[in-house]
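Reopening this ticket.

The earlier resolution said the output was attached, but the attachment link was broken on my side. Pasting everything inline this time so it's all in one place.
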Amino acid sequence: MVIVVKHMKKEYFIFVFLIFGFTCADQSCNLKDGKYKVVYDKQFSGYAESEFVIIDQTLIELKNNQKSEYKINWIAEDQFRLDPINKETDSLTSIQEELNSLGEPYYQITGCKAGDIMFEFYRNPHILINSGKLIRKD
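Inline output:
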């Protein structure tokens, strides 16, 4: 009888561990379809908060009554770029050309907590542009 109880305790522990693991896995740091609000970290408080919607790996941002659409291009499990769907055909200024020579900007997901997704936005692996969190609104 003692052996059966010990064996049951072990199975119960494994069962609880698996359930806990699957529950935590549902709270992943993935960008899912829905509405989000961007809130920047304190050191980047000068950036205006913004909102966007994700639909089928397309990010739609409405800012200053202008709609911008981007394709979410995953470059790693926790890194992505936003590629404009309607690229402007105007020639680049010298400053824009200089910025482009520094590398393509990308987002790094650094973690998640209580449904918020923390991110860092880089020009390249050495230049941090800003950081903050994406708060899912629905």
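Reporter confirms the inline version is readable. The longest strand covers residues 66-76. Strands lie at 34-40, 50-55, 58-63, 66-76, 79-84, 106-113, 116-124, 127-136.
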